[in-house]
Amino acid sequence: MFQENVQVLWNKKVGPSFYTLGLTCNRGYADAVPGQFIMLRIPDQKEPLLRRPFSIHRLIYDGGHLKGIEILYKVVGECTKRYSELMEGHRVDLMGPLGNGFSVLTNVHHIYIAAGGIGVAPLIFLVQFFKKKGLDLSACDVFLGGRSKEEVLCKDEFMRHGTKIYITTDDGSEGEKGLVTDPLEAGMIQKPPDIIYACGPPAMLKSVARIAESNKVPCQVSIETVMACGMGACLGCAVEGKKDSGKYRHACIDGPVFDAADLKI
């Protein structure tokens, strides 16, 4: 884990309220795992007092050398509004990489990736990681969902990697009208995957976990939750384990990625 004052490389608007923020970082981030996160704060600002967590969206390379990391975020309040005003050359306080990420199981070929809205943030890094490991991404099915067309993110990026894309929106403005779990569940009937990776709102993850369990397919989920410290000191990001596990986990140190079978979601 590194704590450092880093430079903004870019801050690009990629949707009505979505941005990608590129940051320089310690070379140690080359060992980061998809699903890990960073804690970010603008120096010399009294509010917000605490750092804010963001998934690592991708690693940035230049000529084969690690140049930085990128995060994908949505402007939802005053804090993220301030991040949207950062410009190239500005400095921010960065701490990471933190938490436990996705694990790639052996003998895995057919993969499902499910993302709801901003939940897509850590999953581009996951596909980037798969490609580096030499996995055949044409055998990877990606399910993207959002309330509307504007909230369906990163589809072009996934397509460039050669994955199959299935899109759903609540209002039918892009893809099929319905939930992201609809085509995922339908796909299970035709050819179940070897594993499912998912990130999104709690209701979506609950549905994905149910589908995975009923089809006896391993499933890893990245939990979206509020974190105050990112290091397990405040104990504010507790998530409940299933009854047979008998304890709570903490998203910042035990997760944010969990085996869906271990959580009560």
Structure description:
With 265 residues, this protein is an alpha/beta fold. It folds into two domains: 97 residues, Translation factors (Elongation Factor Tu (Ef-tu), domain 3, Beta Barrel), CATH 2.40.30.10; 152 residues, Rossmann fold (3-Layer(aba) Sandwich). The chain is 18% helix and 34% strand. It contains five helices and 16 strands. It has a seven-stranded antiparallel sheet. Strands 11-10-9-8-12-13-16 form a seven-stranded mixed sheet, sandwiched between helices. Strands 14-15 form a two-stranded antiparallel ribbon. Strand 14 and strand 15 form a beta hairpin. Helix 4 runs parallel beside helix 5. The two termini are 29 Å apart. The mean pLDDT is 91.
Q: Using the coordinates above, name the CATH class of the largest domain.
A: Alpha Beta
**What would you call the structural class?**
alpha/beta
Q: Spans with pLDDT under 50 lasting ≥5 residues?
A: none
> Roughly what fraction of the amino acids lie in strands?
25-35%
Order of helices and strands: EEEEEEHEEHEHEEHEHEEEE
In total, how many beta strands? 16
Summed over residues and divided by their number, the pLDDT gives a mean of 91
Determine the N-to-C terminus distance.
29 Å
Gross morphology is globular
- Put simply, the count of helices is 5
Adjacency order of strands in the biggest sheet: 4-3-7-1-2-6-5
Q: What is the total domain count?
A: 2
As a whole number of angstroms, the C-alpha radius of gyration is 18 Å
**In the CATH scheme, what's the topology name of the largest domain?**
Rossmann fold
Classified in CATH, the superfamily of the largest domain is Nucleotide-binding domain of ferredoxin-NADP reductase (FNR) module
The description of the largest β-sheet is: 7 strands, antiparallel
Helix coverage percent of residues?
Answer: 10-25%
CATH architecture of the largest domain: 3-Layer(aba) Sandwich
